[in-house]
Design brief:
By secondary structure, the protein is of the alpha/beta class. The protein has a single domain, classed as SGNH hydrolase (Rossmann fold), CATH 3.40.50. The chain has eight helices and nine strands. Helix 1 links the parallel strand 1 and strand 2. The radius of gyration is 18 Å and the shape is globular.
Length: 245
C-alpha cells in the first residue's frame, strides 16, 4: 500500500483552483504537491484551499492527523500562507477574509509562528515525517502595501498596481519582525525549509523561486504549469530522494 503524502496550503496547491482573471484558461495542470507525490510514489491527500490562511492550514492538518491512522502517513507538508488572512468555519465549512480586522502585523506574525511551532509538536508527537515552509511571503506584501483583491481589480475599484497601506513605518516594522522571527530560531529551524523565512537574515519563501514567465500573467501572479514544476523541484532538492523511513 502506498504511503500518504498529506499536504495543506493555499491556492498555489488547490486542485480546484481557477484563474479569476482568466476564467477561460484551463488550470487543471498538476500542482506542486501532485508532482511531489509522483516523485515519491505516494498517495496524495491534498487539503490546500484557495485563500487559506495559516489557521486553516494548521487546523486542516491537525484534524486529519488526529482522526486517521497515522501509520499510513509517510510525509506531512505544511505550505504556509500570508499572516494577515483570517480563517473561520461555519457549520464545519471553512472560509476566509483577506485581512484580519483585529490586531496588527506583529500579532498576525506571532499567531502564525505559534501555528508553525504547534504543527512541529503535533508531528513529533505522532512520530511523523514532516517539513514546513513558507509558500508565499508571510508579511512582505503587508510591508510593501497589500495588493488589491481580485474582485476589486476586476470591478475596476482599483487598478492592478494599487496597494493597500497597512503599516505606517515599514522599515521600522521590519526590524521588529526580524526580532520576532529570531525568538523562534531554536524552536523552528529544524525541518523548516527556508527558515528563518526573511531574506534579510538568510531565509526565503518558496514563491521567490518563480520568475515572470513562471506565472499565469502580469495580473494573475499564481504559478502556471511551468511554475508548479519549479516549485516541486525547489522542494525536492531540499527534501532529498529518501524522505520515507
Amino acid at each position: 500500500m502506498k504511503k500518504i503524502l498529506l499536504v495543506s496550503g493555499c491556492s498555489w496547491g488547490d486542485k480546484d483552483w481557477y484563474s479569476f482573471f482568466h476564467p477561460d484558461i484551463d488550470c487543471s495542470w498538476p500542482k506542486w504537491c501532485d508532482l511531489i507525490a509522483e516523485k515519491y510514489d505516494m498517495k496524495l491527500v491534498n487539503l490546500c484551499k484557495s485563500g487559506a490562511g495559516n489557521e486553516y492550514i494548521y487546523s486542516s492538518l491537525f484534524d486529519y492527523i488526529t482522526t486517521h491512522d497515522t501509520n499510513n502517513i509517510g510525509l506531512v507538508l505544511a505550505a504556509w500562507s500570508q499572516c494577515q488572512r483570517r480563517d473561520f468555519a461555519k457549520k464545519g465549512n471553512w472560509t476566509n477574509h483577506r485581512i484580519d480586522k483585529e490586531g496588527d502585523i506583529f500579532y498576525w506574525i506571532e499567531k502564525s509562528l505559534r501555528y508553525m511551532l504547534s504543527f512541529k509538536i503535533l508531528c513529533e508527537k505522532y512520530n511523523l515525517n514532516y517539513k514546513q515552509f513558507q509558500m508565499i511571503q508571510l508579511y512582505k506584501d503587508i510591508l510593501e502595501g497589500l495588493r488589491a483583491g481580485e474582485v476589486e481589480i476586476k470591478k475596476g475599484i482599483y487598478d492592478k498596481d494599487f496597494r493597500h497601506k497597512i503599516v505606517d513605518q515599514p522599515k521600522k516594522a521590519l526590524q521588529e519582525i526580524l526580532k520576532i522571527l529570531m525568538k523562534y530560531d531554536d524552536l523552528l529551524g529544524e525541518n523548516f525549509i527556508g527558515w528563518p523565512i526573511a531574506e534579510e537574515i538568510g531565509g526565503f519563501a518558496l514563491n521567490n523561486t518563480l520568475k515572470d514567465d513562471d506565472k499565469i500573467s502580469e495580473i494573475d501572479r499564481h504559478p502556471n504549469a511551468k511554475g508548479q514544476v519549479k516549485l516541486m523541484e525547489k522542494l525536492y532538492d531540499r527534501l532529498g530522494p529518501r524522505i520515507l523511513n
